[in-house]
């Protein structure tokens, strides 16, 4: 494979880097590794983590050719960015692209989202300080569906992010969210050029919604990041975390799949990553990894695919999903809970509670 512009002789393992495809990300000019590194697990959001192990994971990932890392102030409420900053020490800045986010922040629902210009400007400064960087490559508006209105994003947040790009603190403008239709609407209505979209849980073993939108994103020259191949824990043998917003029905079908995988000594999460890596359209598949063991595991899937036995189990599980799963997503579940909480108080049924 051709070496990407992020290759640094003397730092990277050239033989390993050449094993990876590096794909164009829209019209940004960035060529990103087909597998990229998510850092939500550099915080309590996905259970236990170890800072030194996170550091080893980041160094090993980049040396082997992963060149896109994604984080956010929301992950651990600043913790992920802070730990990632420590992990990046000693790594040449040229060796990676870094994406972070604005607009989603605190655990308290009343302080969780802020799409204002003032907070957005403050947020990027805080992120750069935590990360120990002078700039990020992609600055993404986090979960745009939670804005008071899309108009707020279009007329205030996006122009502010564009100002930040012009200031040199970021290079490209991105947006993220769960409803893919909202991402597309934002792209088509924006007077500011949106360079990337991050879509999560929408091109997986149980949900292929993103496929319907890929041609339209590409027509608008938008790079696509496909995140959460294992649907935030739904598609793994251990099952989803308690906070997962999927319906009991979806969880039950996924449990049937994971039980079958356990009986056959196959990890459903491996099948899920394999499945997402086979999908055409996205520039990269973003997978959360906070240990070298998990990194090695996903590199193995990427480079070697599935064994014959794993392929048999994969085909069986896909048949279960295709025949039994009559609903595949939880669109608006968290959104409705959030606005109900804001209006009436009470408990918020949201992520990472």
Outline of the structure:
This protein is of the alpha/beta class and 353 residues long. The chain has helices at 14-17, 51-63, 79-87, 109-112, 117-131, 150-167, 180-189, 214-219, 248-263, 268-277, 292-304, 308-324, 333-344; strands at 22-24, 31-33, 35-38, 68-70, 97-102, 136-141, 170-177, 196-200, 223-227, 284-288.
Structure description:
The chain is an alpha/beta fold and 353 residues long. It has a single domain, classed as TIM Barrel (Alpha-Beta Barrel), CATH 3.20.20.100. It has 13 helices and ten strands. It has an eight-stranded parallel β-barrel, surrounded by five helices. Helix 6 links the parallel strand 6 and strand 7. Helix 3 runs parallel beside helix 5 and helix 10 packs across helix 11. The termini are far apart. It comes from Exocentrus adspersus. This is NADP-dependent oxidoreductase domain-containing protein.
CATH topology term: TIM Barrel
Main β sheet profile: 8 strands, parallel, barrel
CATH superfamily: NADP-dependent oxidoreductase domain
The residue-averaged pLDDT reads: 95
Number of domains: 1
Distance between the termini: 43 Å
Domain NADP-dependent oxidoreductase: 35-313
GO molecular function, one term: L-galactose dehydrogenase activity
Protein name: NADP-dependent oxidoreductase domain-containing protein
InterPro entries: AKR (IPR020471), LGALDH-like (IPR044479), NAD(P)_OxRdtase_dom_sf (IPR036812), NADP_OxRdtase_dom (IPR023210)
